[in-house]
Design brief:
heterotrimer; A alpha/beta; B alpha+beta; C alpha/beta; A: alpha/beta; eleven-stranded mixed sheet; B: Glutamine Phosphoribosylpyrophosphate, subunit 1, domain 1; Alpha-Beta Plaits; 2 domains; seven-stranded antiparallel sheet; six-stranded antiparallel sheet; 7 helices
Amino acid sequence: MKTISLAEHSVREVNQQLHDQARELTEPHWRITDPDGRHALACGLDQALTVDIDGHAGYYCAGMNQQATVNVHGTVGVGVAENMMSGRVHVHGNASQSAGATAHGGLLVIDGDAAARCGISMKGVDIVVGGSVGHMSAFMGQAGRLVVCGDAGEALGDSLYEARLYVRGAVESLGADCIEKEMRDEHLAELRELLARAGIEADPADFRRYGSARKLYNFHVDNADAG
Amino acid sequence: MCGIVGLYLKNEALQPRLGELFQPMLLSMGDRGPDSAGFAIYGDDVGQERLKYTLQAEDPATDWAGIAEGLQAHLGAPVEWFRNATAAVFKTGTDADAVRDWLRDNAPGVHLMSVGHSIEILKGVGHPRLVAERFGLQGMQGTHIIGHTRMATESAVNMEGSHPFSTGHDLCLVHNGSLSNHNRLRTRLQRAGLRFETDNDTEVAAAYLTWRMAEGDSLTGALERAVDDLDGFYTFTVGTRNGFAVLRDPIACKPAVMAETADYVAMASEYRALTTLPGIQNARVWEPAPKRVYVWEGGPLTSQETGT
Amino acid sequence: MDDHTDNWGLRESATFDRNAIREIQRAADTGIYDIRGFGAKRKVPHFDDLVFLGASMSRYPLEGYRERCGTDVVLGDRFASKPLHLDIPVTIAGMSFGSLSANAKEALGRGASAVGTSTTTGDGGMTDEERGQSRTLVYQYLPSRYGMNPKHLRMADAIEVVLGQGAKPGGGGMLMGQKISDRVAEMRTLPKGVDQRSACRHPDWTGPDDLAIKIEELREITDWEKPVFIKIGASRTYFDVKLAVKAGADVVVLDGMQGGTAATQEVFIEHVGIPTLAAIPQAVQALQEMDMHRKVQLIVSGGIRNGADVAKAIALGADAVSIGTAALIALGCNHPRWEEEYQRIGSAAGFYDDYHAGQDPAGISTQDPELAARLDPELAGRRLANYLRVITLEAQTIARACGKSHVHNLEPEDLVALDMEAAAMARVPLAGTGWIPGQGGV
C-alpha cells in the first residue's frame, strides 16, 4: 500500500499518480491522508484500484469513477461520485448535495445522510444511503436504484423516468409524476441484494417502492402544471 | 457568489477565543471568494445608552483623533474610540443620524460600516487571509461572528461591495447566491425610507430584514416573509445583537452546512470550514432544508418552515 | 398580400397582424406553446449594418492573391497543456446526435477536418462517426449529461461547459419523441419516444464559485491537457464573461440571439437574449478590463453567414467564430431540390424550421433511417468544406483590403456603422462621422 499526504503533495500530484495506474498497474492500494476538504480527490480513475481517503473530502470526490473502489473515512462535499461509470464509492460519513449525480453505473454507498438532490439525473448507478436524503432526490432519475434507509425530503423523484426508488422511512412529499408502487417479490429480491452489497443491515420488507407514473413522458396540455 | 461562515457561541467560556476559532473557518473559504472578505463580530456590548459606530477609511493618514474630537464637540457628548488598521470604532450617543450627517460633511473619506450596541463590521478588498491579518481577527473576542469571502458577480469589487451588509442597528447579512428581483425591491424599500450605499443585491436583502423588523416582525418572522418576497438563489446567514439565523431559498442550490454542539452553532458553505472547531466529531451536522428558518437568539435552536 | 384583401381595401392590424392572430388560434387549438428549430427570425441589428473602411491613401492594402494573410488561431493556451491549433477562425458549433442524424454529424466532421478546423458534440454524447471523422473535436459538457462518458472526455480535444445558448439563454434543451430512436434512446438512457426535456441548470453546480470547482475537476480528470471552453447565451454578457474568466475558462464561447437550436419554444427564440452584434463589445470590454483579451479566447456565434460576418466579428474582438445554422445549410438543409417534400409537410425550401419534428427531407435534422440515408456524408462534408473555404477567403479578402497580414489584426477602428442602432451596439462610429452613440465624438 502506498500512502500520500495532501499536506505534502498537491491534489494534482496525487491524482496524476493515481491516473498513471491506468496505464500500468504497479500499486493496487492507496491511502490519501490530510485531505482537508480538498476538491476533486481521486476523480477520473480508470483502474481496479482501492483508494482510502483518511478524512474529509470536498466537491466531486471520486467523480466519474471507473472500476476503482474509493473509501472516504469522513464526509464528502457536493457531487461525490458524480457521473460514475463503474466501481464502488463508499462514504463513511455524510455526503453533501448531488451525491451520485448523473452516474451511469457502479455502487455508491453513503453510511450517513445525503443532502439535497441525491441521485439527480441518475443514469444507471445504484445508490444506497444509510441515513436520510434531502429534497429533490432522484430528480429526473433515468435509470438505476436509489435506496434510502432513513427519510426522504420533499419532492422525491420529481420528473422521474425509469429509476427505482426504495425508502424505509418517511417521505416528506413525492415530486411531480412520482408515485408509490407495489413491492413485488422481484423488488424485495433486488433490494436485499443491494443492501447486502452495501453492507447495510435492513429488512427489505420495511421499505416502500416509488417510481414514475410516466405521465410526463410526452408534452400534453393536461400535464402543463408540472412543466 | 462566495463562501460564508458563521459561529454563534452558546458557551460563554469560549468568548475570549471567538476570533481564534473563527479565523480558520474564514480562511478555508478563501478559494470560494478571493476578491474580498469581511466579517461582523458581536461583543463588547456598550449597553442601551450608547452605540458603536464602525468607521473605515482607505487613507492610512486619516486623522481619527481629530474626527473623534470634532464629533465630540458636535454631539456635546463624549466619544470613546480605538483604531484597528484602516478602521476605527467610535462609542458615543445613540443619535445615529447626527453622527452620520456630521461624518458626511466633515470626514468625506470615512465610511460608516455599521451601527449598533454590539456589532463591528470589518471588511476589505483582497484575499481573506490579508483581510483577517489586517484587522487582527485571530485575537478578537465576542459572542458571535459572521463572515464572507466574495467572488463578485454583477456589482463592483470594492470595499463597499464587500459583505457583510448592515442596514440597521446590529443587523447584518451575508449571502451566497444571486437575487433576481432586487432592483424593484430596492425601489420599494427606498420609498419606505431605507438608505442604500451600493447596487448590490445582498444589501437589498439586508435592508428588507431591517424594514420588516422595524415594522415589528421578529427575526424569524422577517425571514419567513423573505421567502415570499425575495426571489432567486440564496443562502443567508444573519446576525442580530443577540441572534443568529440561516435561511436557504426554496430550491437551495447554493451550499450550506450546519453544526451544533452544547458549545456553539456554526454554519459554512462547505464542511471543511467546520473541521477545526472543537468537538466537531460529535456535533450534530446537517444541511439546512429549503425555506426553513433556523434561528438562535440566546436560547435553544428553533427552526420553522415558512409557508409557500 | 392576397388579391382580395388588397382589392377590398381591408386593413390589417399592425399589432394583431396575421401571424399574431394565427398564433393565438394555434395556442387555443392545441393548448401547448409552439416549438420549432432554427434561430431568431425577427430583424435585429446585425453585421449587415456595419461596413469596413478599406485601405486607400492613409492605409496600404495587401495584394489580394499573393501577400500572406494569416487565418490560424490558437484556442485555450491559458491553462491547458494541449491547446487547439486551427487553420481557420471558423469552427463548427455544438449540435447533438439526436437532433441531427449520424450522417450529418459525420459530414460536419469531414467538412471541418478538410479545412483544418474543429467540430463540436452536443447534448447526447459523442458518436464514433463524429470522433472518427473529426480531426479536432470539442466535447460538450451539458446540464443533462446525456451520454456523458469520461472515456469520451479523454478522447476529446477540448471540453465545452455549456451554460446557455443564444436561442434560449436560461432554458434547457428539448428533443421530441419522434426523434428518440433506439440508438438515441440508448445513448441518453431514456425510454424510446419520450419528449425529452434537458435541464437548464447543471445538476451538481450553480453559480461561478461552484463552476470554478467543477472546472478544476474536469481539468484533474483530463490531467490539465484539454482546454476548457465555457459557452454562454448572450444576455448579461459583460458580467458573464468576467465570471467565466474568473471561474477559470480558457475560452469563452458567446452565442447571440440569432444562434440556432434544434427545438425550443418560439417565444424563447424570438424574445430572450440580445443580438450577437450587441454582445461582442460587452464581452471584449470585460476581457480587456481583466487584461485577458486574446489570452482567454472569444468565439462568437449566432448569425454568421459569410466572410464579411467573420471579419466583422473578429474586428470587434472575437478570436474565432462558430457556425451552426450556416453549416447545416451548407450540408443541404433547406435545399430547393427537396421543394416538393417541404411543401408536403407545410413548409418550403428556405423556410424550413421544424427541426424538432424529425421529418427533414434533406436527412439532416432527423432520425428516420430512410431520410437520413439521403445525406451522403462524404458529399455533404465536401460541400461544407467548400463553404468554409469560401468564407475564409472572403474574410481574408477584407483583411487584406484593410492592410492586415492576419485576420486578427482587424480592429473596431476598421468599421463604421450604417445606422445608429448598430453604431450604439457595436460601439463604432456612424459612417461618415466620428460619432459613437453614448461615447461622443463628432
